[in-house]
């Protein structure tokens, strides 16, 4: 027993030493990325609700190993024991599910299309999961599967045992599919129409598979009937199984796969993305592409876990919104419109929900990848031309999910950050249209627009759910429109209209509770009122979460609460209260509720978006050291580099971008302004390689787990006391030197001139 105790002590010491050690700059940040982070999720509890996306940055097509059944949004669960295939996917989240999917599966001696019978045991010990390369051993078939992607194609390499019964299955899924086997060309072509909504009637995902060996035999299936020697099938659910003879153990089969939303001819054209490359060369290309993008943000001087979390989060920040455009035979950018079903010129992006991603994902792209953001703005203009509306949740077309009109923030933030879209007048028109009209879906335009325009809020008692959340977000969105109108020199009365609406948040503030509260059409607050009630007047949260959704005027909110000290106490209360909840609106604890309850951070629900900016609001009330403390606590406690690495849904880059920004030491509390609010950097050094060729060096040499507080900050060697930094100054290139200490400096960042932007104080000036 004493030897066991001694071994335990030694092991614990080694682990502590490992955590204390810091890692220098890495030459290949892709090596720090795990695509498995967040995959240990279930319907009732999310630790990310991610899947291991095998993809290039913003790629049109992703691939994923598939453990779930056909049509299951949880396509890959870390705790599963078997794989059913390898799926081309366009899924943004399990809640939105997928569209245009099909799957491939190697088999040996098991000529079946049944998804249960074909499944093979696998182990994570024999799995490599990277963005540009995935490999796994299928134990039941003694087959190694490898995948490497391009933007619209993928290369498969299957290593078989010696056998006369090697097969590759193509499953085009149900809801209407077509497959044709072309033995002379060693190809399979076809299409899948399976989707979860948001597509026109003529939607198809056309695919082509090209094999490097001739087919020994061919079979196709249609609606549960497998027929040998049949080459063409069209039915509800079809697929193909092609056979090969493997003369030696270790023989390999190469398969090139591509798809198109435009046509089978375009799918064949997209397959040319693999021309001239061997499998290994394509792996190297993918590695280089990812390293190029990831190295635009270099961090060093953190623990190995910190580095892994950071670069895994950065990877997730560069996946969505995905390309939904293709390059035609003339080299022109074209797209199939998910809004009207036509093939049209120009860019298109999709698979993002602005309710989540306006907060930090789009501001991050505007800072570090403005050339990509500019294309996304062009895609938004095309979405408006083709549908008459800007999407608020697109997958691939308009979807009726979430609240708000946050396309206003996405457009305005890009313009304020210097991204000069040639479509800005079209986009501005789209913002005004969306701000003043209810759309064809509740989540498009503004539900309750007429009430909001007349009363300044969406009433609680007019059968429009989540009305207080809508009001607060509309008010911020109006502020974003005001910012854009100002930047475009629009008429003064137009500017003042939206500026005035930006103060509508005041109409829902309840002085009796110091919180935001639903209000009836007659001007009376809703009653009874439970600030711990999720849903109802709010969206996936309660009043304690949504009260802080006054991004545009935190100073005004503080005045309503009784001043800076009173608001600071209110902020403290979020963490000090027990995680009690009222789930009666839903009838059960939705996963977001459970994730807050188990996090041991009181009412702070980092696993969902409405409150993610709240920590930084301490800067607005002259207590920046409290922001520094809680940001560090959240990074350390709510994130890890393991399969349970998130504390709720990752949500298309938003929760990841929060970490990336926070680890760098600043955060965009108010998108559509020129400011970032300071926290405290996590690493000893970070270097931002900006698109304009400038560099931002963030240095904190004495940073550590203990030294989490900013004692002093120098900007280009000059003392800097403000609690914010300006984007327009940052992109000129800068060196920020943080003096980090174990004790907070309660004299820094406390003066009125040090506080970040608020609309009401900006007006006063």
Automatic annotation (TrEMBL):
InterPro entries per the UniProt record, alphabetical: 6-hairpin_glycosidase_sf, GH-type_carb-bd, GH92_a_mannosidase_put, GH92_N, Glyco_hydro_92, PNGase
Keywords (A to Z) from UniProt: Calcium, Hydrolase, Signal
Organism: Sphingobacterium oryzagri
UniProt cofactor(s): Ca(2+)
Name of this protein: GH92 family glycosyl hydrolase
Signal peptide: 1-20
Domain named Glycosyl hydrolase family: residues: 266-741
Region: Disordered, residue numbers: 743-765
GO MF term set: hydrolase activity
One Pfam family of this chain: Glyco_hydro_92
Domain Glycosyl hydrolase family 92 N-terminal positions: 33-260
Top-rank taxon: Bacteria
Assembly and oligomerization: Monomer.
